[in-house]
Amino acid sequence: MSVDLSQFVQAFLEESFEGLDRMESELLGSDILDSAPDEERGGERINTIFRAAHSIKGSAATFGFAAVGEFTHGVETLLDQIRDGRRPLTEEGRALLLEAVDRIRDMLSAARDGTEHDAHGVERTREAIAALLADAPPGPEAAARSAATAAPAPQGAEDAALWRIEFAPHRGLLGTGNDPLRIFAYLRDLGELSVTCDAAELPAVDALAPESCYLRWTLELRGAASEADIREAFEWVAEDCDLAITGAARPEVARADVTPNRAAPPDVTPPDVTPGKPTAAAKPRANDTSVTTRAAAPAAADAAPEATPAAAPAAADEAPVASTTAAPGGADAAAVDRRRKPPVDRRADSSSIRVAVEKIDALVDLVGELVISQAMLETIGGSAEPEDFDAVRVERLRQGLAQLERNMRELQEAVLSVRMIPISFVFSRLPRLVRDLESALAKKVRLVIEGEETELDKGVIEKLVDPLTHIVRNAVDHGIESPAARAAAGKPETGTLKLRARHQGGNIVIDIEDDGAGLDRERLLRKARERGIPVPENPTDRDVWQLIFAPGFSTAEAITDISGRGVGMDVVRQNIESINGRLDIESTAGAGTKLTIRLPLTLAILDGMSVRVGEEIFILPLTAILESLQPRPEQLHSIGGRGRVVRLRGEYLPLVSLSDVFNLPGRSGKAEEGIVVVVESAKDRAALFVDELIAQHQVVIKSLETNYRRVPGISGATIMGDGRVALILDVDALTQIH
Amino acid sequence: MSAAELQHGQLSAENRRELLTFRLGEEEYGIDILSVQEIRRYEAVTRIANTPEFIKGVINMRGTIVPIVDLRIRFALGNVTYDEFTVVVILNVADRVVGIVVDAVSDVIAIDAEALRPAPEFGAHLDTDYLDGLATVDERMVIIVDIEALITTPELGLIDDASSAA
Question: Which 3 state secondary structure label does DSSP give A102?
């Protein structure tokens, strides 16, 4: 059977990345450690993780990612033992599993991008897992259950048992896409395999249905494999065959229909036995393996592998920092980039999207209604002559149009909602980041996340990953003080970092709030003077906070690997502005800092105000508009005969005449005859001078760059009701023009 | 070997080319018909500020924003008037959709690569880099333009150059 699998590889990769995300977020759940499998929450988490690992392993093998499948197999075995309560999940085990998640992710993204993954790192992690599996003898209760099940894979040859497997597939087995040969090949890897085929049921050729399976097999496997290992080989076909596995060394027959290798016999005792000896035995070993791999974690730092084995025992806590700071003596920008990249790139640019079926159903319904409206209009006006349009008919026509408009609006919303995904897509990766930072910086941070179900346009969310990661990193590094400093300041040792997403009037607002030291006004000003960054006279707090967005500005006393290279906040703000967002900052000395990101719901549609300048129509984004007014002559002043300002409630705003900026014949001469629109960008405020305000619209944003190029002062284009193109003004650029 | 000769050499590999010819003033130009997406009437454009005069602006073509270049202005040929007979040739070259304004579309012709003569160098005045050569059709001379080279030339300013693309 030759099916081109390549078309599914993309889907496999995406699913696997999702599975990895799920594994990671569940692993980070606080209630997962040492929880018995029957405990509601922790047990469910382990199950989720196991399922994710299991399906990654299964499909990886199917799609020819043998290395991934093999690696994941070890992870799965470990998880299986934890799930069955044969092994407690320790902090070390968790670190190792997180490590493994990163490895799988690395391997898959390397496969996706056609690059090489870090084979050494993978090998180390694999060995660490194997060591953990081999080292800690599973709890005695497991041994009582079945010697074979308990025996972990790689043990001495003396453990080699003879298994007799009777495998009788149902007729339809092949139709499910399963191939016995693949199963046998897998078994062959477990030990010495001999296969006997029973073709007794095979009918004559003319009666043979080529897609049915008439054969049955008897297999004999000699090797260290456990019954669970063997059952696993048959896991995908469990429903479609009769299977009997007999341990020849041990006469008891485990006859079952495969499914429940975890349907634990009643004699399994909960893990009160486990915390004793086995754990203790496992610990030292698990500990140093996890250190080795952890220290090498920033895969790109080539120096790490050589450096770590020796340094490992000592470097336990500061491992991530140590390896990276040690590696490049003259840490150049490239090295920095490399280290910063992995957490950012790993989930980037997925080109497909999963949509809830309800959303699709809603779309179908709406299209149905649209068809009805169209039919209604057709009846009213389709075959009517001009003289038929009496008052009644016109009124019905109006109603029809109103209905059509409502349909269109609903359809528009529904179509856009297809692109909406919950912000947990970004938020879910932050606990891991915070956890890594905590251990790297020896700080204690409690991360509180609210509103993660808030939905945002997929494009916006993908562009949010970078800035948000950066802000959180900054908050933990600079914002939240060390436990000692916090205690001295009379605060709880554990700092709180709160992330909150919510809707606010057509925007999504994300707050990132820490209860750290807050920004230091004096230090910011001093730094600004040192760096020669211009500071206004008698700066307000707001002015001072804005300084951290200046390029090349960094207040970190010591430049750490985590943050503080001064390539930070200005880039963050640019990124956010590139998706039409705004970034604001509030801070109280000693009490903390709060950053607020305001984002449009979608990138595709913009609420805009159309304005006329001369003969041309432009669109101003509504979010940027503060107010509009018709200025009185005494409010207008000129400076040096050229620049002009508008005085507004005691404040002077630069007057930007759009007809001058765009070289249009407008009434730029007499500002008092036109309208002044006060706009605000993240950087500045300005008064735009236009001839007329026309109307408020929702406009669909079209790119000018697809077929043309960037135009200064213009952020895009849109198509108006009459089919003409109107340009959308770039408020940021315009406020910088004066 | 000049660029034009090089082009010529490549052309003889394929024997016949189909060309759309159009007029700019007194001159007749031909472009590869495969680069032509459609021909439409000139309609009002939306001006773009601070661009050279030959970039008329952008139009909406079924939801796509398409820039319009007036080749008559660019080459200082013909009477630059816009009336109901003014024609825009919509091109699809270099993954972009661009419209060019010409005086009139005349014909679709097929020429033998053999019939193509290299265009003489005119020095700095007329850039021959984007001329494929000259052909004679019914005693008329047709100037064959490498339209992709013309559209993507930085001088036309239709495309962000790498430095300003950031």
Answer: helix
Considering CB atoms only, which of A616, A663, A709 is closest to B160?
A709
Token duo for residue A733: 């650029």
Residue A485: strand, helix, or coil: helix
- Give residue A672's domain range: 605-737
Flag whether residue A179 sits within 8 Å of chain B, measured between CB atoms.
no
Summarize the confidence of residues A294-321 as an average pLDDT: 40
Return the structure tokens found at A410. 């609903």
A427 and A493 in one domain? yes
**Residue A68: predicted pLDDT:** 84
Q: What percent of chain A has pLDDT over 90?
A: 4
At A610 the pLDDT is 92
The stretch A670-689 carries a mean pLDDT of: 79
Cα–Cα nearest to A345, from A462, A203, A502, A497: A462
ipTM value for the complex? 0.79
Residue A154: CATH number of its domain: 3.30.70.1110
Q: Could you tell me which chain A residue has the CA closest to the CA of B96?
A: A707
Residues of B in contact with A663 (CB under 8 A): 49-50
CB contacts under 8 A, B 69-108 vs A, are: 96-98
- Dist. CA B53–CA A608, nearest whole Å: 29
d(C-alpha A371, C-alpha A628), whole Å:
41
User: A603 near A460, Cβ under 8 Å?
Assistant: yes
Q: End of a domain among A418, A446, A467?
A: A418
- Shared domain for A186 and A316, answered yes or no, is no
CATH number of the domain residue B23 falls in: 2.40.50.180
Q: Are A444 and A406 in contact (CB under 8 A)?
A: no
3-state percent breakdown (helix, strand, coil) of chain A, nearest 5: 50, 20, 30
Answer yes or no: do B49 and A709 touch at CB < 8 A.
no
Please give the tally of structural domains in chain A: 5
Tokens standing for residue A515 = 């209860």
Which residues have CB under 8 Å from A38's CB, separation 6+?
A85, A270
Q: Are strands A643-648 and A636-639 parallel, antiparallel or unpaired?
A: antiparallel
Check residue A605 and report its DSSP letter: E
Distance from CA of A633 to the nearest CA of B (A): 28
User: Which residues make beta-bridge pairs with B116?
Assistant: none
- Optimal mutation site among A659, A709, A728, A730, interface B, most CBs of chain B within 10 A: A709
Is B26's pLDDT higher than 50? yes
Pairwise CA distance, residues A579 & A466, whole Å: 12
Q: Report how far residue A239's alpha carbon sits from residue A699's, in angstroms, rounded to the nearest whole number.
A: 54
Contacts of B116 (CB under 8 A, 6+ apart): B8, B11, B132, B133, B134, B135, B144
* pLDDT at residue A297, as a whole number: 38
The nearest CA of chain A is from the CA of B57 a distance in Å of 10
> What is the gyration radius of the CA atoms in chain A, in angstroms?
33
The alpha-helical segments, DSSP class H, found in A382-451 are: 391-418, 424-427, 430-441
Which one of A661, A709, A725 has the shortest CB-CB distance to B46? A725
In terms of domains, do A476 and A575 share one? yes
- When divided into structural domains, chain B yields a total of 1
Residue for token pair 């304004």? B101
Tell me what percent of the residues of chain A surpass a pLDDT of 70: 75
Q: Is residue A267 part of a domain?
A: no
Separation of alpha carbons B59 and B45, rounded Å = 5
Model confidence at B89: pLDDT above 90: yes
C-alpha to C-alpha distance for B11 and A732, rounded to whole angstroms: 49
> Is the pLDDT score of A296 beyond 80?
no
Q: How far is CA A704 from CA A402, A620, A663, B40, B158, in A?
A: 32, 16, 19, 21, 11
